[in-house]
Amino acid sequence: MEKIQPVIPRRIKILLFSLVSFYTVSTNVEARSPVHHTHKRIHKKANVHKVSATHHTRNSHFRTRTYKFKHKSYGHVIQCVAFARSASDIQLKGNARDWWNNAEGVYKRGNTPEANSVLSFRPTRRMPLGHVAVVKQVVNSRTIIIDQSHWAQRGISHNTPVIDVSANNDWSAVRVALNGNKNAFGSIYPTHGFIYPSTQETTRPIIRENTKGNIRTWTADAATAKTTTEVALAPNISDSDLFGSDAPNRSLK
Q: Which pLDDT score, from 0 to 100, does residue 71 have?
């Protein structure tokens, strides 16, 4: 006996085909969603920027290429001029080597250390932008205590001894205590002098020539110098102390 095949109306066929297609698309979307959200969480935790470039393919699908740029952070170092402005009443602009000239007519200058004054270092080969430090205490005519930043270490150094090694006790040449050892001092550095918080300029501004060439004779000159001013004897120095390797090998500000 011949079996009779059931006749399915055309409308029912179209409806069944639509339902199957919809189910297939929904399944694919649900399968992709967890991966997509996972990538979002990863990007958020990694703190990265995404730059997307969309490309069109032959199959009319869009693909996205993602580039990641991670943030980098670097330790901030307070420059010596910024520290000197914040730790003293001296408010000057420019590089440290320019402070002495910029103070003319604005602040009093001299060669006698005072608390809250700023010691101005001359520029040298190893620190072409000079250096400034804040005087915290005057111990005696040859020794002071300073606070400074960006010297031989990154950051601020407090309570650092500095001694005057000039022949005439005029603080035109100094030695700074080495980091971690306040009883040992480094090389000789030429200085301009001290800038005081007072806004009155001295009647006779101190003008010094380059002292680098005369440092070797300072100790000998101290014994024979005829002056009406009594000065403390300069510490013994040698040629090895002249602008040695302990000077900061960078452009200080």
A: 33
